[in-house]
Amino acid sequence: MLALTACAGRAAPEKPMPASATLAAHGVECHKERATGSLVAATVCTSAAERARAAENAQETKDWLNSGKAGPCPPNVVCN
């Protein structure tokens, strides 16, 4: 039983990343992220467009929260 636990707790090896100069030339930035409660960090890469959209979404949400209008959801979030 101990052998199964030891094997199950090991993270799978990550795929090799392209050279950082190649990624930078395409506007891609990579960093390590660790999910809340996780001890394993994962490499996350985002393009300039993805980062710009995330910043835009964050600003829209801040503007909506500061507007004082009561509503079900901010305009950039789909409510179910």
Mean pLDDT reading: 78
Structural class of the secondary elements?
alpha+beta
Ends: how far apart?
43 Å
Number of strands: 2
Q: How are the strands of the largest sheet arranged? A: 1-2
Tally of contiguous helical segments: 3
H/E topology pattern? HHEEH
Beta fraction of the residues? 15-25%
Low-pLDDT runs of 5+ residues are: none
Radius of gyration: 19 Å
**Overall geometric form:** flat
* Biggest sheet architecture: 2 strands, antiparallel
What is the strand and helix layout of this fold?
Blueprint: H1 2-8, H2 20-25, E1 29-34, E2 41-46, H3 48-67
Can I get a quick summary?
With 80 residues, the chain is of the alpha+beta class.
